[in-house]
Design goal:
The complex is a heterotrimer of chains A (325), B (342) and C (282). Chain A has 14 helices and two strands; from the N terminus they run H-H-H-H-E-E-H-H-H-H-H-H-H-H-H-H. Chain A is an all-alpha fold. Chain A folds into two domains: 51 residues, no CATH class; 249 residues, MetI-like (MetI-like fold). In chain A, a hairpin with a 4-residue loop joins strand 1 and strand 2. Chain B folds into two domains: 133 residues, 3-Layer(aba) Sandwich (D-Maltodextrin-Binding Protein, domain 2); 155 residues, Periplasmic binding protein-like II (D-Maltodextrin-Binding Protein, domain 2, 3-Layer(aba) Sandwich), CATH 3.40.190.10. Chain B starts with a helix and ends with a helix. Chain C is mostly helical and 282 residues long. Chain C has two domains: 41 residues; 236 residues, MetI-like fold, CATH 1.10.3720. In chain C, helix 3 runs parallel beside helix 6, helix 6 crosses helix 8 and helix 7 runs antiparallel to helix 8. Chain C is globular, with a radius of gyration of 24 Å. The mean pLDDT of chain C is 88. Classes of the chains: A mainly alpha (325), B alpha/beta (342), C mainly alpha (282). At the A-C interface, helix 3, helix 5, helix 6, helix 7 and helix 8 of A face helix 1, helix 3, helix 4, helix 5 and helix 6 of C.
Chain lengths: 325, 342, 282
């Protein structure tokens, strides 16, 4: 340290101290790491900018009508997002209708009933499901789920529940139901893992108090523990929804790629992510591409809101859990 | 330990760079476009590479629409399409003038998957229009039975399968339907993509073939090669002369005969619903879209060589793959057009 | 039946149902693995690993170029994404000011939740269009954009979990802040950081959507990072939707290989983490 001071020429105190700090390396380290961290901000800003700029032609041409028009015809230059919004919502809601009851049920079992080691092991396995790539889910769905749906499940549903409009119409195997089912499987891990965490956060005293008052295990779980963990469970649902909305490959492989709004779950449909994947590389003109990018922007905003909401809910749960300790 | 880690790390990096650098000696050409002729194009580019190891043409079959688009954007060196570019589309490419080079002729066939039906079904143009516009929804409909007397048709629902992306095959098919059905022309029209009233969307000729193969009751339109390759039944279509014909080397070649005689200088011509007793109505040329100005000398040499090769040796590969080779008069004219590439 | 007995019965039934739910969800994993193993195991052959793809309908092709291509793209993405995520995470854990940290964290979480197809659009506009070419670079950049937030947050998390006494000890001995970080904190957190990175890389390894219009695809070996390249996920997609039995077979084989890589990485990462945590506590 002594010789560095000799290298620096004598200067007024402030500059000397600054140079000393510089030589300690901390300032540099601070700046360097700051730059790298800031790159995340740069990427995000650039992303939104690019989406906004490249969708301007479509936004100006159609305005808000974009969201309420059904026609999507590149030939005549008519682009309406309604069929894709419909398809995205239907498949995601269907997925949640299946995965939330099953997932929360499994989370309850893992948090309340299963012994710790079994619970950890099973949770680990379920979380592995989250690592399976989307295209592999699609591959499995095409060759195993779709034939199953076409041969047994959909005819069965039609025979028993055919009076409902959602189980009417021709059976393809491919369609909303297939997409919804595969999305349900893809969202299991999120619901189970996070709900289980939320349930485990609930303090023991809550359960013990309920049981002491004479509640059965189920009553204690359902009427005390679950409501306590409600925010975290809701957070997991938001996250699962955000994931389902943005799923591309598995959906486009089994949904039928038909931009039509149909009541029947047996019918083919289309989602925002799927149409972008199919049509982006050959959007015939600037307007077509712009409309697709506007769809991308919509998807971005939707998932952003849901993810933000999810994190708030999950943070609120952990805060609640720790504050009551 | 630390030195071993750095060594491992360093060698991995070196490996990547070597992989990247070694390829720079080669001429790499990227092309994209139609799936209609993909079977023969892939074979051609493979054979060409064996004969010219330093020239690698990477062809991605993303659909005619994609080929035109990527060519316009400049992200590929040349494109491929089953429909000729319109004047508007040509004008959009300002860097150079696009040259159309027909490569082969092919036929679009209606392929289906109907239980118990192994004979070839017959389709009039109007019938196809009604099926694909969902006016007819069951296989045992009276209209289908009328044209196919004696065939036992099941009561299954018809599942229409069409293309999900911009396709030259779609263009040819809808061009035909627009010609034979005024209703279709008004309501749906023709184009690389149209607003289909119903049906499943599949990617590429392979996707449509795959979907039809897997879905009972399905009907789709694919290039002849895909139906034959997959041993799928396909129907006969009624031509302008009233005859029901299946696509074949002869019927497709016959369809191009008239156009071959009066081929325009820029090779942009449609042979859909061509006159002639034995002409297959859903025939088409398919084109390579080549820039007339290629700045990279290595790429230009390779592309010019390929075109010569394609027009001579390459044509021999057509028939075995169910494509019709070009008429001799057309080949001669194309050889002359190659000189335009500078 | 009196009320208590009925309530007890309901309780038993409902809890049993939750067991059923667990069984159903866990068994899907085994069904998936089993099915993939069955179909993929019978399809993987020597050709798959050594041959290039063949024209439609011909048998005997393989995915050698896609395997190498995937390795190239993932490698490049990791090369770009891991350092940025790591150093950014160091900032958040050690140097972060209040507003800056909040902004960076929020943005990282935001990016994390963006659907991969939208990231693909982004990469197309900023790399493919200016470069006038599809390229492995564009594909790698789109994957890197997905990797950075994951790496950032996990680095931050594990750096923050290093106990205060460790840092204070180093500082008390006269080390500067950055030296403390480099020689004490990072090594202590390295297991967790590594885990996070491995999980992140495993996550991007399976992504298909962003590659569709960035890296495109290639019939041959990739000719450089500025050229299109074949990758396993994209090949699986195109093969799966085709009509050829041989191509379906290849899709299964590729699916098995890809899933095996991803699962091995995940399991390895978690093992590292659990052993590391155990060692620290011990």
């Amino acid at each position: 340290m002594g010789n560095t001071a000799a290298v620096v020429a004598p200067s007024p105190g402030g500059a000397r101290r600054f140079l000393k700090r510089l030589q300690d390396g901390d300032e540099i380290a601070h700046m360097l790491t700051l730059i790298f961290a800031a790159s995340v901000l740069l990427i995000a800003v650039l992303l939104v900018y690019e989406l906004w700029i490249h969708s301007s032609e479509s936004r100006q041409r159609f305005g808000f009508n974009f969201f309420f028009t059904q026609t999507w015809d590149p030939n005549s230059g008519q682009f309406g997002a309604l069929p894709y919004i419909y398809g995205t919502i239907v498949t995601s809601v269907l997925a949640l209708l299946i995965s939330v009851p099953l997932g929360v049920g499994a989370a309850i079992f893992l948090a309340e009933l299963a012994p710790a080691r079994v619970s950890n092991m099973l949770t680990f396995l379920v979380e592995l499901l989250a690592a399976v790539p989307s295209v592999i889910y699609g591959l499995l769905a095409i060759f195993s789920l779709v034939p199953l749906l076409r041969t047994y499940i959909e005819p069965g549903l039609k025979a028993t529940l055919g009076f409902l409009p959602m189980f009417q119409g021709p059976i393809y195997g491919i369609g909303f139901l297939a997409a919804g089912l595969i999305l349900a499987i893809m969202t299991f891990p999120f619901i189970i893992s996070i709900s289980r965490e939320a349930l485990l956060e609930v303090p023991r005293e809550q359960r013990e108090a309920a049981l002491a008052l004479g509640a059965t295990k189920w009553e204690s779980t359902w009427q005390v523990v679950v409501p306590y963990a409600k925010l975290g469970i809701m957070g997991s649902i938001f996250l699962a929804l955000a994931r389902a909305l943005g799923e591309t490959m598995a959906v486009t492989m089994v949904i039928g790629n038909d931009p039509r709004i149909k009541a029947s779950l047996f019918a083919p449909g289309y989602t925002i992510a799927a149409v972008i994947a199919n049509e982006f590389s050959e959007a015939v003109n600037g307007l077509h591409q712009s409309a697709l990018i506007e769809l991308g922007l919509v998807l971005f905003l939707l998932t952003m809101i849901l993810n933000a909401g999810a994190r708030l809910l999950i943070i609120a749960t952990t805060k609640k859990g720790s504050s009551r300790e | 330990m630390k030195t071993r880690r750095t060594f491992l790390f360093g060698s991995v990096i070196a490996g990547f760079l070597a992989l990247g650098a070694s390829a720079y000696a080669m001429v790499q050409i990227n092309a994209a476009g139609a799936t209609f002729p993909a079977a023969i194009y892939q074979k051609w580019f493979e054979k060409f590479k064996t004969a010219h190891p330093d020239d690698q043409i990477n062809y991605q079959a993303i659909g005619s629409g994609g080929g035109v688009r990527q060519l316009t954007e400049g992200t590929v060196d040349f494109g491929a399409s089953d429909f000729p570019l319109t004047d508007e589309q040509i004008a959009k490419i300002t860097k150079y003038h696009v040259l159309h080079f027909p490569t082969v002729m092919g036929g679009v066939v209606p392929t289906y998957n109907v239980e118990g039906v192994s004979t070839d079904l017959k389709f009039t143009g109007q019938l196809l229009a009604d099926i694909f516009s969902a006016k007819i929804s069951k296989w045992n409909d009276a209209e289908i039975a009328k044209v196919n007397p004696g065939v036992k048709l099941p009561s299954t629902d018809i599942v229409v399968v069409h293309r999900s992306e911009g396709s030259g095959t779609t263009f040819v098919f809808t061009d035909f339907l627009s010609t034979v059905s005024p209703d279709w022309k008004n309501k749906i029209g023709k184009g690389p993509t149209v607003s289909w009233p119903s049906g499943l969307g599949a990617k590429g000729n392979e996707g449509v073939a795959g979907q039809v193969k897997q879905t009972p009751g399905a009907i789709g339109y694919v290039e002849l090669f895909y139906a034959i390759q997959n041993k799928m039944p396909f129907g006969a279509v009624q031509n302008q002369a009233g005859k029901f014909l299946k696509a074949s080397l002869e019927s497709v070649t016959e369809a191009a005969a008239g156009a071959a005689k009066s081929m325009p200088a820029d090779f942009r011509v449609s042979i859909v619903n061509a006159p002639g007793a034995n002409a297959y109505p859903l025939s088409t040329f398919t084109w390579l879209l080549i820039p007339d100005s290629i700045p990279d000398a290595g790429k230009k040499k390779a592309i010019v060589e390929f075109l010569h090769w394609m027009l001579t040796t390459g044509q021999n590969d057509a028939a075995p793959l169910s494509y019709a080779p070009l008429p001799k008069s057309v080949i001669a004219k194309e050889e002359a057009q190659i000189a335009k590439i500078h | 039946m009196n009320r208590t007995a009925r309530r007890k019965l309901i309780s038993n039934i409902m809890m049993a149902l939750t067991g059923v739910c667990t069984f159903l969800t866990v068994s899907t994993l085994f069904l998936i693995l089993g099915y993939l193993l069955w179909n993929g195991g019978t399809s993987v052959d020597w050709n798959f690993f050594t041959k290039l793809p063949k024209s439609p309908g011909e048998t005997g092709g393989g995915m050698a170029n896609a395997i190498v291509g995937s390795a190239q793209i993932i490698g490049l993405a990791a090369l770009i994404g891991v350092p940025i995520g790591f150093i950014g995470g160091v900032y958040l854990a050690e140097f972060g000011g209040k507003t800056m940290s909040f902004l960076v964290r929020y943005t990282a979480d935001l990016l994390n939740g963006v659907p991969s197809i939208v990231i693909g659009i982004f990469a197309w506009t900023v790399v493919v269009v200016p470069m006038k070419s599809f390229s492995a670079l564009a594909g790698a950049l789109s994957l890197a954009v997905m990797l950075i937030p994951i790496g950032l947050r996990s680095t931050e998390q594990f750096m923050l979990s290093v106990p205060l006494p460790l840092r204070e000890g180093a500082l008390a001995l006269g080390a500067s802040k950055w030296k403390t970080i480099a020689t004490v904190v990072v090594p202590a957190a390295i297991r967790g950081i590594l885990t996070g990175m491995i999980l992140g890389v495993a996550r991007i390894a399976g992504e298909t959507a962003p590659l569709l219009f960035t890296a495109l695809n290639n019939q041959y070996w990739s000719a450089g990072f500025n050229q299109p390249v074949a990758t396993l996920p994209v090949m699986i997609y195109y093969r799966a939707i085709s009509p050829y039995e041989d191509w379906h077979r290849q899709a299964w084989a590729a699916g098995l290989v890809l899933l095996a890589m991803v699962l091995v990485a995940n399991i390895a990462a978690r093992l590292i983490l659990s052993r590391g945590a155990g060692a620290q506590r011990g």
